[in-house]
Amino acid sequence: MPDEVRYALASVDHAAELSRLEKLQAINDPATLSRLDSIGIGPGQRCLEVGAGAGSIARELARRVGSTGAVVAADIDPRFLDDFDGPNTSVVTHDLSKGAVAPADFDFAHCRALLAHIEDLPGAVRNLVESLRPGGVLLCEEPDYGACEICDPSHPGASIFRFYLDGVLGGDRMDPYAGRNVHAAMREMGLVDLQSSAVTEIVSGGSFRAAYRKETMENVREMAVTHGTYTEASFQELMDCFDDPSFCYVDVLWVGVWGRRPEGETNV
Ligand SMILES: C[S@@+](CC[C@H](N)C(=O)[O-])C[C@H]1O[C@@H](n2cnc3c(N)ncnc32)[C@H](O)[C@@H]1O
């Protein structure tokens, strides 16, 4: 992520960012929980949650592994995880782009909505794999903007929304194809029993999902206008799409990929 975007996001008001992260959790937790069921997270396991955000999945992992297991929640900015420290839970400040949290330590590692924002996605996947013991499972869940589309190209909001999508698809703010790229990176790393599933939805302006995207964009409004990417008026036109129930789009495809580090492997 360019430094400028990182600084813009770091300065976002605490309550506003918490509200945005809670929406992200509400949208994505059902798919994550069903993947945790498929993988079989249970008592006694050691789990790692990286980029834990507001912490819903770290808390769910702690519930599943119980008092005989352990959960480490890692984040470059763990400001919403103050209450997570406990007898078998801990919080670490960690930048995944710099290395593994702890080598070969975990039965399970998870991240969501994180790798799309790290410049070297394959390197970050390597750091996650390194944190697994041989036989441990990695689950990565990332957005893919390739399927995102306006439902009615003749809608008055269509051209500003097209401009927004083209900016995401061609910009350097994030990897718009992180969903498919994470699959490629995990395959390259030699993970076995690789599986994936993906979900999306048709979103109407005024809905909960539209509010999440609007709040995400609000975080970069000032930067986008200062840079001249948008004028105040064109940015507002985009925001209005997210409030307009007659405007619909196919949302981001949320891709989940999971696989196992081969048994007997000591180095990645
Ligand atoms: C979009 S939020 C996703 C939060 C959570 N995973 C979820 O899906 O609800 C991204 C999180 O990753 C953290 N993050 C960003 N870059 C990071 C990095 N290089 N290493 C570790 N955490 C990072 C942010 O501080 C933020 O909490």
Task: Report on this structure.
The chain is of the alpha/beta class and 268 residues long. The longest helix is centred in the N-terminal third of the chain and has 26 residues, at 14-39. The chain is globular, with a radius of gyration of 19 Å. The strands form two sheets. A seven-stranded mixed beta sheet has the order 3-2-1-4-5-10-7, sandwiched between helices. It has nine helices and ten strands. The model has no long low-confidence stretch (mean pLDDT 94). Strand 1, helix 3 and strand 2 (70-75) form a beta-alpha-beta unit. It binds S-adenosylmethionine. S-adenosylmethionine (SAM) is lined by residues 21, 24-25, 28, 50-53, 75-77, 94-97, 112-114, 117-118.
Structural features:
268 residues; alpha/beta; Rossmann fold; seven-stranded mixed beta sheet; three-stranded antiparallel beta sheet; 9 helices; globular; binds S-adenosylmethionine
List the helices and strands and how they pair.
Layout: H1 3-10, H2 14-39, E1 46-50, H3 56-65, E2 70-75, E3 89-93, E4 106-112, H4 121-130, E5 132-144, E6 149-150, H5 158-170, H6 178-188, E7 192-199, E8 202-204, H7 208-218, H8 221-226, H9 232-243, E9 248-250, E10 253-260
Helix pairs in contact: 2-7, 4-6
